Amino acid sequence: MISTPLTEICGVRVPVVQGGMQWVGKPELVAAVSNAGGLGIITALTQPNPDALRVAIRETRKSTDKPFGVNITLLPSINPPDYEGYARAAVEEGVKIFETAGNSPGKLIKYFKSEGCIVIHKCTTIRHAKSAERLGVDILSIDGFECAGHPGEDDIGGVVLLARAAQELKIPYIASGGFADGRGLVSALALGAAGVNMGTRFMCTVESPIHQNIKEKIVASTEQDTVHIFRTLRNTARVFKNSVSEQVVALERRPGGAKFEDLRELVSGARGRVVYENGDPEYGIWSAGISVGLIRDIPSCQELVARIEKEAEEVIAGMSRSVKVSSKL
Ligand code: NAD
């Protein structure tokens, strides 16, 4: 067993968090991750309104008695969500762990802390991490350039970002972006993290509520198969490379660039959602991290989390056998 401040604070067995994923963080996946010993996270905005989030929370509780959390991500949206309504609904339903992410999270973080909840805040720069630390979050989730979705605008890979976190942060942090296996977990621990956050890896599990074709597409992909969109709008997102994301990039690169209005039809989340429902990877934009290159199968969450735990323990034991450390005393 690998015990860390993450496992202690959140009451989970394995230091692995299933991060928020739009259209994917639904009860069946969340309960499976939590039952496997990790921390499952419901994505609030995947539910159409706060009442639907209440139903999703109750549904998750029917399938697990283990801890799970709720993600609320604050980013530009075509239809501005009722963030406060989602937050209140989750707190009233008794959720004790929140993952926040995105811009200006101060008000939400203060609310969750005033309700005695644990907050894991995801950020992509040390500057934002330190400001969240001052706001009183419990754990930071340090999201490197490798991640799916929104990596920020600074393009710092996980190795340096996590080492910087070790230098600067006082509270525990977990590593996010590019993690998919036990070796990755050990590397995160070596960089001072208390665990890992995985999104793309959990998309490709038996219980993940997306079409089998998309899971198979992930298995067949390499680390070359993602691309950044919205770079020119300063809302960069790493998504799967397909005809739609390549069209978006081409529009952004044309002379004079593109406004969001020029891209809206191509990038809408409603269209991306259909990808997961009908299994056509070319239908719209869908998020994926560079870790697609590491994913070779579609295990159950139980198999995956157990494998990561075993592999991490073997890597740690193997290192102490193969790396000789001599003392000059
Ligand atoms: P959406 O249909 O509202 O927007 C699609 C994409 O366009 C998103 O990446 C969004 O950030 C971006 N966008 C929207 N308006 C924009 C603008 N004016 N300028 C620049 N970019 C703009 O998105 P959705 O799929 O319905 O998701 C709802 C919200 O959840 C979005 O803000 C999205 O970024 C966010 N999100 C959450 C997660 C998560 O893990 N919880 C993951 C991905 C995205």
Can you describe this structure?
Pfam families: NMO. Keywords: Flavoprotein, FMN, Oxidoreductase. GO terms for molecular function: nitronate monooxygenase activity. InterPro entries: Aldolase_TIM, NMO. The mean pLDDT is about 95. α3 packs parallel to α4 (about 85-90). This protein starts with a helix and ends in a 7-residue tail after the last helix. The chain is about 45% helix and about 15% strand. It has 14 helices and ten strands. The protein folds into two domains: about 5-210 and about 295-320, Aldolase class I (TIM Barrel, Alpha-Beta Barrel); about 225-285, no CATH class. The longest helix has 22 residues, at about 300-320. The strands form two sheets. It has an eight-stranded parallel β-sheet. With about 325 residues, it is of the alpha/beta class. It is globular. The structure holds nicotinamide-adenine-dinucleotide (NAD). Nicotinamide-adenine-dinucleotide binds near residues 149, 233 and 235. Nicotinamide-adenine-dinucleotide (NAD) binds near residues 71, 78, 237 and 272.
Briefly say what this structure is.
The chain is of the alpha/beta class.
* Helical stretch tally: 14
- Under CATH, the homologous superfamily of the largest domain reads Aldolase class I
Indicate the mean pLDDT: 97
For the largest beta-sheet, the strand count, sense and barrel status come to: 8 strands, parallel
Order of helices and strands: HEHEHEHEHEHEHEHEHHEEHHHH
Morphology call: globular
How far apart the termini lie comes to 33 Å
Total beta strand runs: 10
CATH top level of the largest domain is Alpha Beta
Task: Assess the beta-strand content as a share of residues.
Answer: 5-15%
CATH topology of the largest domain: TIM Barrel
Looking at the chains present, what oligomeric state does this protein adopt? Answer: single chain
SSE-based structural type: alpha/beta
CATH architecture of the largest domain: Alpha-Beta Barrel
Cα-atom Rg, whole angstroms? 19 Å
Each distinct ligand: nicotinamide-adenine-dinucleotide
Question: Low-confidence stretches at least 5 residues in length (pLDDT < 50)?
Answer: none
What topology, given as strand order, has the largest sheet? 1-8-7-6-5-4-3-2
